[in-house]
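Whether sequence alone determines local backbone shape is best considered at the level of individual chains. When preparing material for the folding task, we compiled for one chain both its residues and its backbone structure tokens. The sequence in question and its structure tokens are set out directly beneath this paragraph.
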Amino acid sequence: MGMSKSQGCFGYPLSIFFIVANEFCERFSYYGMRGILILYFTNFLSWDDNLSTAIYHTFVALCYLTPILGALIADSWLGKFKTIVSLSIVYTIGQAVISVSSMNDLTDHNHDGTPDSLPVHVALSMIGLALIALGTGGIKPCVSAFGGDQFEESQEKQRNRFFSIFYLAINAGSLLSTIITPMLRVQQCGIHSKQACYPLAFGVPAALMAVSLIVFVIGSGMYKKFQPQGNIMSKVAKCIHFAIKNRFRHRSKAFPKREHWLDWAKEKYDERLISQIKMVMRVMFLYIPLPMFWALFDQQGSRWTLQAATMSGKIGALEIQPDQMQTVNAILIVIMVPIFDAVLYPLIAKCGFSFTSLKKMTVGMFLASLAFVAAAIVQVEIDKTLPVFPKGNEIQIKVLNIGNNTMNISLPGEMVTLDPLSQTNAYMTFDVNKLTSINISSPGSPVTAVTDNFEQGQRHTLLVWAPNHYRVVMDGLNQKPKKGENGIRFVNTFNELITITMSGKIYANVSSNNASNYQFFSSGIKGFTISSTEIPPQCQPSFSTFYLEFGSAYTYTVQRKNDGCPEVKEFEDISANTVNMALQIPQYFLLTCGEVVFSVTGLEFSYSQAPSNMKSVLQAGWLLTVAVGNIIVLIVAGVGQISKQWAEYILFAALLLVVCIIFAIMTRFYTYINPAEIEAQFDEDEKKKSLEKSNPYFMSGANSQTQM
């Protein structure tokens, strides 16, 4: 094997810094691309939410399944170094392809700003994503194992520290990219028509990937490179198959039992391979419960972000959007990894407690379970403040008087009197089958019955005006507005059509005594203008809302003042979120501490317990647990429609707790090994054997045994 003397720096091989820099760039590139992918699908390729989410999750799962492929190529064919280089090239090409696929000028021959043939863009972006999944997944298990390879046997402490630094680089890369890439997307660019700059947002990650590749190749002379040792996976598979077959053949009582089922392969395979497979099997067995941790961990992006959308983002002077809460995890990692490494672990060691890798992982699972209990407590607090929406065959009605007279409305079991421009305080809930009669009247006019097919499970607004006119409007909003935005709709009391423009969105031609649909706006003060043929030219056309917070909905009525000019009045439909997003910090803190003790340790444990020719394979096995965790979430989300969100959190916490206890019991039976020592022992024995072969005086007694 080609070994060059490694230069040192702070007691670390110099080559390590190239590997960490490479990982930082690669993760920046990956998370930057992944962060805007969903928006690219929905806005540029105009797919609906469900298709976008499905393709997105498939892509993420693929990125965690392809490591198996990368590990096979590295451990049996190209070696880790060449695998990283060649797959990085594939990866860079993939990033470039998706960047090109997002240029509308590519097929936009009539220069109207939209691509003329979307299929070209879809095809290109799918090819790009496939290459990226192959690249990112393929190099994942190799980079961490290749880093571990750079250390001498005696440098175990530095090597463990390396896995922490490596994990830090991953999170620093993802943190920076989640902040920077969205800024690039909102830039305007294009040759013939200006629009959101996806080519730039995809192009910067592509350029960084190229940089990461160059950085990695520059360090080439310093690396310790091990030659791959033949197709190890097929050997392993054949050996296991032979052992099972052989064991089955000798199942009668006549044959003596063997210590381990793999020992039944002794007839055909050498002991070294058998002992290596035993090491891998023992670790893989421990991995079985681990996907449950990732199933909880991966809900930060989905469930917890949706939870944040029902909360208020005003934290002191800061305003935080719900999808920015995820950066809390990356920020905390960057803070917590050094604290655990430099302060907490040494303290625990000083107290004389042996905090082994597997104990750390058990604690990590327990902390993640606690995080979900915290999330459930926050959810219960939120549920107290959420408005009640109609369920099943219930409907809800509120009445809004938009006329100039007092109106009387009789509903089943209720009598309401409304002054001009006022509404009932809340939505009233009725069973759609028991909704007998609704009547309206104004003083001195006959009673009119309201007839309408109310749609079950929906909210409705009954607009009334004198003497006995009415209109039933279906709100179309039977949940809190998504992403913490605010719903706004307008009711026109003029006789002619009016059009309202608000912060770039248009409510076109709202007819007389009717309500527009809701449109949604982020927090802040929004200006709007009202235009109509009926409004005199000297009127002031522009208005502004009061300060919109998070998750509210309002109806603005537009009515005529005495001078013919419009004025507006707002009515609350859904109150703003009141529970503060800062309350999510404890659950993020617990989950991040769990991640630090679980994930960093898992990487390092997988490396230290693997035989030298299967380091990448075990890293891939570790990443496979992440893929399975992702799949668990998709299944649970699809199957278990638990109506109460807090109950789902508790269910997940309980599941992980059970798994944590099982794992703790399993770890009691695991004994730590040093693969290098075991392999050295085999080398020793082989030397002796070859000595015996060359020295015939040893042969007399041995011959009879080798013939067996």
In short: The longest helix spans residues 67-101. The CA atoms of residues 39 and 493 lie 38 Å apart.
